[in-house]
Amino acid sequence: MPLLMLKDLPRYECLLEAAREYPDLDPSATEVFLNLLRTGDEAFRVTEDHLAQHDITHGRFGVLMALWGNCHREGRETPLGPAEIAERTGVTRATVTGLVDTLERAGFVARTPHSDDRRMTSVALTLAGEAVLAKILPEHFRQMAWLMGTLTESERKAFVQLLTKVMARAAERPVAVAEELAVAAARV
Fold this sequence. Notes:
Layout: H1 12-21, H2 27-52, H3 58-74, H4 82-89, H5 93-105, E1 109-113, E2 121-125, H6 127-148, H7 153-187
Antiparallel strand pairs: 1-2
Helix pairs in contact: 1-2, 2-6, 3-4, 4-5
């Protein structure tokens, strides 16, 4: 599902005009923000179309990649608990449970009792899960390279730096919003 429900973005002149009515609207910030969301939607669509050919959703792919990445990072298969998968994929544990259920039915992952705590389970890739990733990943990586192929190497590095700054700013948001609300309340 797209993050931005606008196919056609407003022209900069329209943003300037809207800023007259809404003084907090920063036209250039809004233009960048809308373009970021629109571009993210298009990048998501490219990967979603590819994953759909393999009957895999982004959520399921995220779980498979978290398990695959863990295996490759550790140099050996190390199963993960649902809480660790949730943390690595940025979704709730309840969502992970549903995703793992679906992947388990497909034979791509297996649950096993946790080695230290029998109340918990661990999740690991199966050979079928590794095989489906081996089938998906080459084209997935080619599509990423194709999409970013319009940027030079220096543009890519600058882009990553800029996106990192925006991500860091987004992480500050709860604190910044609380401070701004306190200042606004003090003015009233």
